[in-house]
Amino acid sequence: MAQSPKDLRIAILGAGMGGLTCALALAKEGFKHIEVYEYASDLGFVGAGIQMAPNMARVLDRLGVWAGIEREAVDIKETSVRVGATNGELAHVDLNYIRKTYGYPHMVGHRSSLANGLYNGCLNESAIKFHFSTNAQKVNKFGPQPSFTAVPRDGSPSCEVQADIILAADGIKSQARVEMLQRLGVDATVKDTHQAAYRIMIHKDQIKDDPELLKLINGSRVTRWIGEKRHLIAYPVSNNTIYNISTTQPDKNFAAATNATYTTRGSKSAMLDTFSDFCPMVLRMLDYVPEGEVCEWKLRVHEPLPTWIHQSVALVGDACHPTLPHMNQGAAQAIEDGAVIAVALSRLPDTKPESINKALRVYEKVRMQRAYTLVEMAAANGRAMHLGEGAAKEERDRQFAALRQGKGPVPDKWADADVQREIYGFDCTKVAEESFDDLFNQM
Ligand SMILES: Cc1cc2nc3c(=O)[nH]c(=O)nc-3n(C[C@H](O)[C@H](O)[C@H](O)COP(=O)(O)OP(=O)(O)OC[C@H]3O[C@@H](n4cnc5c(N)ncnc54)[C@H](O)[C@@H]3O)c2cc1C
């Protein structure tokens, strides 16, 4: 048994944003034995952009990796919400106040830039060891000294890995989540959102003769075009060299698919059909994407779980609070999880399994309500942006009209100053540090 908490062996399943942040934050707290098991052979993230809100940047800055990520990102100064069919502007919001108010800007970047920033931070820590191409197949024991079966994908023999703590950051399809909830007798079904997303990128040289789109790629604006049951959100990434477009539309292509299917190569003509009643500029934009570079994602979420912890195992990120992307907070919340887990475990008074379980439950206490509030907010924002004709849409559009006169909230909630105060103003690390003793003693 480990003599000191910092000697505890921590196994992290999954090297997504949640797993990488857990590893780095724990190493920064002085933990010496952190092993990360990742199914993929490398961090080959799909070509897609990501919004990086101030609450994410604050954590990354404390971990020493924000400066490098920020260098390649685009500082968002404004957002515009438009009618998909006409390109008419419903709202324009100046976001320059964000950096001044929260100490960090709202930035957008390439996923690989964010992931590699975290990964390179981990590589600088001798306490962290990576095992790529390894399937963390089954959690066999949840505690004390939990264990799982690691199956190398190159055909080498599988082995049983024992640790003192397992952090399951294995994403929305988390096998550890299913096993944990089975043990607890909780229904672990995935909720169908009936929504899917196309994610595409256009390179600047593809649109060099299109002044309207060049203006968008050279700008510092997030634009959302909305229509019934559909929208597109787009912004420049990678130092304004790529225009990133993410859509949401009713799920047709995955509806009959098995639960294992989450992404597929999308059909360009099906994508163009889906948005055929949107304005010519949007269609032109979509048409620049080369055939074969359309990726479609099924958007899935879970019902909120009653717990994320069983004995010495904790769920992290999308494994326990997957979200629709309509508030741009999924990765930010996985990153907040990592920061809070590190604070909670770093304050362990001893290495007893009971103490480990209590510290993990402090993590859950600090994180669960906030994460699920944001999950619900994202679903609600999607519903509001996707309204069809009727009284609710009239009321929403009345709010957009009032906003154009300088009054009232922003109906697209991620851009509303009061909502941002709740999300960006929350310093998860500080809250965990300040509340740890009280919460731990109450457990
Ligand atoms: C269309 C779309 C747009 C989005 N936009 C934003 C945005 O702008 N801002 C934002 O903050 N968030 C956004 N998100 C959400 C964000 O992408 C996710 O919430 C975030 O990536 C979750 O991170 P994670 O580490 O929990 O899970 P994942 O990123 O899914 O990582 C899980 C990792 O575990 C590995 N794994 C799985 N099973 C095993 C196993 N058995 N053994 C070993 N390894 C395993 C996987 O290979 C993967 O690397 C968006 C999501 C979507 C779908």
Short note summarizing the structure:
By secondary structure, this protein is α+β, with helices and mostly antiparallel strands.
Q: Hey, roughly how much beta strand do the residues contain? A: 25-35%
Query: Main sheet, how many strands, which sense, barrel?
Result: 8 strands, mixed
Query: Briefly, what CATH class of the domain at 5-52 and 111-189 and 308-386 and 416-442?
Result: Alpha Beta
- Looking at the overall shape, the CATH architecture of the domain at 5-52 and 111-189 and 308-386 and 416-442 is 3-Layer(bba) Sandwich
Rounded to the nearest angstrom, the distance between the terminal CA atoms is 23 Å
CATH homologous superfamily grouping of the domain at 5-52 and 111-189 and 308-386 and 416-442:
FAD/NAD(P)-binding domain
Spatial order of the strands in the main sheet? 6-5-14-15-16-13-18-17
Helix content: 25-40%
Give the overall shape, derived from the CA principal axes.
globular
What small ligands are held by the chains? flavin-adenine dinucleotide
| Mean pLDDT across residues | 94
What is the fold-level CATH name, i.e. the topology of the domain at 5-52 and 111-189 and 308-386 and 416-442?
FAD/NAD(P)-binding domain
Q: Spans with pLDDT under 50 lasting ≥5 residues? A: none
Q: How many distinct helices?
A: 14
Structural class: alpha+beta
Question: What's the β-strand tally?
Answer: 20
Rounded to an integer in angstroms, the radius of gyration calculated over CA atoms is 22 Å
Keywords: FAD, Flavoprotein, Monooxygenase, Oxidoreductase
Domain FAD-binding: 9-376
Protein name: Monooxygenase
GO molecular function: FAD binding; monooxygenase activity
